[in-house]
Specification:
Elements lengths: L8 H4 L13 H11 L12 H12 L7 H6 L2 E3 L6 E12 L5 E11 L3 E3 L1 H12 L2 E2 L1 H16 L3 E10 H4 L10 E8 L4 H12 L4
Parallel strand pairs: 2-5
Antiparallel strand pairs: 1-4, 2-3, 3-6, 6-7
Helix pairs in contact: 2-3, 5-6
């Protein structure tokens, strides 16, 4: 692996001219952030940090470049089945759009087919697409439900997300044991009987 090239002290602390940020690389912008935090980007431990952060953020936000409808439509199957399908405890990691701090938890997805089902792995893949963006939990819950509804037009869709937010745990009110639960119910999942069945199955212990 190539070793990072050490910057001169003057280069490390050089501020961009006003109006030139659009011409800076992403690495330069992260280097500038380090400067404004009071750090020295020229010291050994931080030399490669801007590049690492650039790659990390590109991965954590890769969902912007992925099409959820294309992912789902690539694994649709005609099946004569009209009972509830549930994929639960899907691990989820995302970034809060307000503070760009992580929130993480579990996603439970259910739908009742109407002639078509989705390959099970694509449900988890769909969660990943929406999680790898700057998000709020409420919107992501609705996006997952709407994407499934649009792709296969089932009798209904239910989505529940349980998550913990570092913007509440590390800063602000600093409540480490708090969690947030959101739900989106579409079609027949708005009916009490179907919703209760879904929520009771989600609460059952896994395998």
């Amino acid at each position: 692996m190539a070793q990072p090239v050490a910057m001169k002290k003057s280069e490390a602390h050089a501020l961009p001219e006003p109006g030139t940020l659009k011409d800076c690389s992403t690495e330069d912008l992260y280097r500038e952030i380090l400067l404004r935090l009071g750090e020295d980007p020229g010291r050994d431990g931080l030399l490669a940090t801007p590049g690492r952060v650039e790659k990390s953020m590109a991965y954590l936000t890769k969902g912007y470049h992925e099409d959820p409808n294309r992912i789902l439509r690539g694994a649709l199957f005609d099946v004569d089945y009209d009972e509830m399908v549930i994929v639960k405890d899907v691990e989820m990691f995302s970034l809060c759009e307000h503070h760009m701090l992580p929130f993480f938890g579990r996603v439970h997805v259910a739908y009742i087919p109407k002639g078509k089902v989705i390959g099970l792995s694509k449900i988890a893949r769909l969660v990943e697409v929406f999680a790898r963006r700057l998000q709020v939990q409420e919107r992501m819950t609705r996006q997952i439900a709407d994407a499934i509804q649009e792709a296969i037009e089932p009798q209904g869709v239910g989505v529940v997300i349980e998550a913990r937010h570092l913007c509440m745990m590390m800063r602000g009110i600093e409540k480490q044991n708090s969690s947030t639960v959101t739900s989106a119910m579409v079609g027949c999942f708005r009916q009490k009987e179907t919703r209760v069945e879904f929520l009771s199955l989600v609460r059952q212990p896994g395998m």
